[in-house]
Design goal:
3 domains; Arc Repressor Mutant, subunit A; binds magnesium ion; 9-stranded mixed β-sheet; 15 helices; 503 residues; alpha+beta; elongated; binds adenosine-5'-diphosphate; 3-stranded antiparallel β-sheet
Length: 503
């Protein structure tokens, strides 16, 4: 394949994906994310939405499209869509319409999908993403436009590999509520697309409107990709269907962009296609030529009235919206004095933010943040565990911070206590007490230790008068001799005065 450079026109430095470029190309990306609404029942029936149930156990007569069955809108799903719209700072449309999108598949027995076409429940919104760091360690904040959000039904699942001559169908998902969240073609690199999906998932989880579990199919993305020479008009796009992990979103874009560039550089043209990503090969391949909206023969569903809301209804939902990641981040920076970087790590997952807020309750926020980021998250990362699996509770880490803050233990001993709590559990204050880890601030005891080390090393003590840096060695020895329990400032001071070093 041709060697090319894909440029992100927002940064001055070309993002060189493959060395040895033949020219600059820009990638244009727009995403349609399908997010399963968190609700107990389906969009138009009372059947359960529970994941992992026996095949065809969550199917009502409506889902099975028995003659004469009529859909009844699930109000909770509507409220969830409005909450999501509010969370995306989007226009909430007071009137929206359900349409029939006609296509026949065995996994949707109605013969059409109930969706929204011309009049969706939510209009334009915006998602702020942060990409980076670049070589200077800077993050770039970019606003990505949301075109619309609409409600629609999911389809079931056809199973072709369990019988030599027959196909099976599982209708458990049939009729489950989805929000389709359509972005504007505002992304310019695979990193931006990954950051967009990540941020959207975080917002949905904060809102509690979708669990965001991509492995379970609760969230998946159709990835639209086109390329152009910088400054030219948009080119023809291809749509990669049903990409089910953030990593695959990135990989499919990079493969697809290079595929299109190779065709264009050979003088070819791009066919508007629907494609599939094959994760084992890392390639996209054609599924069908792209259908247009008119192929679906959309028309308003005569079984359903348009949805109509009052301003009071919207205001009421807005009033009970939880604090969202961008606002939480701003508050952690302004009220607790955290750096923007630390705050963004803590808000990146709702579970981490909840953990932090419990631990930092009535404590030094900055110090607690440091402990969580540097010790807890680092250790969890090493262990390949998420915050949900932490063996150290917010109260336990908070207690360690308290002990350091009170001067009972040094930072170093704090790390030891953390290890003990991680492995064995227990109350940090009791651990410090019972294991004799309390910091020695008694000057007399420390002085004795300093004298002993100096007496045992007369040559080094002599040299230290010329080479003041050697003081560090003495401090280290004293700390070792006291099992790390001596207060480091006191040790430093005593070592210097005993060695006759100024300052
Ligand atoms: P369809 O249902 O035909 O896929 P939608 O309007 O639902 O159409 O979605 C179109 C998606 O394609 C949007 O996310 C939009 O941002 C994106 N898109 C539109 N034009 C381009 C383009 N030239 N390159 C990449 N993405 C594009
Ligand atoms: Mg589409």
């Amino acid at each position: 394949m041709t060697e090319v450079t894909l440029v992100d026109t927002r940064t001055t430095e070309a993002k060189r994906l493959i060395p040895g470029a033949t020219g600059d190309w820009e990638v244009i990306i727009g995403l349609e994310v399908h997010a399963q609404v968190s609700s107990n029942a389906k969009l138009f029936s009372g059947a359960s939405t529970e994941f992992g149930a026996e095949p065809n156990s969550n199917v009502s007569l409506v889902d099975a499209a028995m003659p004469g069955m009529l859909p009844v809108i699930n109000e909770e799903c509507v409220a969830q869509a409005v909450r999501t719209g509010l969370g995306l700072k989007a226009q909430i449309n007071k009137r929206s319409v359900f349409d029939r999108k006609n296509y026949f598949y065995p996994d949707l027995p109605q013969g059409y999908q109930i969706s929204q076409f011309k009049d969706p429940i939510v209009g334009e919104g915006v998602i702020l993403i942060s990409v980076g760091p670049d070589k200077q360690g800077n993050f770039e904040e970019v606003e990505i436009g949301v075109e619309r959000l609409h409600l629609e039904q999911d389809a079931g699942k056809s199973i072709h590999d369990q019988h030599p001559t027959m196909s099976y169908v599982d209708l458990n998902r049939t009729g489950v509520a989805l929000m389709e969240i359509v972005s504007k073609p505002d992304m310019r690199s695979s990193d931006e697309a990954k950051a967009y999906v990540t941020k959207l998932r975080t917002i949905l989880r904060y809102l509690g409107t979708c669990d965001g579990n991509m492995e379970q199919g609760s969230m998946r993305a159709d990835v639209n990709v086109s390329v152009r020479r910088p400054g030219e008009d948009f080119g023809t796009r291809c749509e990669i269907k049903n990409v089910n992990s953030i990593r695959f979103v990135g990989q499919s874009i990079e493969y697809e962009a290079r595929r299109q560039i190779a065709i264009l550089e050979d003088g070819g043209v791009i066919d508007q296609q629907t494609r599939l990503f094959d994760p084992t090969k890392g390639e996209t391949r054609s599924m069908r030529s792209k259908e247009d909206a008119h192929d679906y023969r959309y028309f308003p569903d005569p079984d359903l009235l348009p949805l109509e809301f009052t301003q009071e209804y919207i205001d009421e939902l807005a009033k009970h919206l939880p604090e969202l990641p961008d606002e939480k981040k701003a508050r952690l920076v302004s009220d607790m004095g955290l750096t923007a970087y630390d705050a963004s790590i803590l808000v990146s997952e709702k579970a981490i933010a909840d953990y932090f807020e419990k631990a930092a309750n009535d404590r030094d926020g900055k110090m607690t943040a440091n402990w969580i980021i540097n010790n807890l998250l680092g250790k969890l990362n090493e262990a390949g565990q998420g915050i949900e699996e932490t063996p150290v509770s917010p109260d336990q880490i908070g207690a360690i911070v308290d002990l350091i803050k009170a001067g009972d233990i040094s930072n170093q001993i704090g790390k030891e206590v953390f290890e003990i709590v991680w492995n064995e559990g227990g109350n940090p204050a009791e651990i410090v007490e019972s294991r004799g880890l309390k910091q020695v601030t008694d000057t007399g005891a420390i002085e004795a230790a300093v004298d002993e080390i100096i007496a045992a090393n007369p040559d080094k003590a002599e040299q230290a008068k010329e080479k003041p840096n050697l003081a560090g060695w003495f401090v280290g020895q004293v700390m070792k001799a006291t099992g790390g329990k001596a207060a480091p400032q006191v040790v430093q001071q005593l070592v210097k005065s005993k060695l006759g070093i100024d300052g």
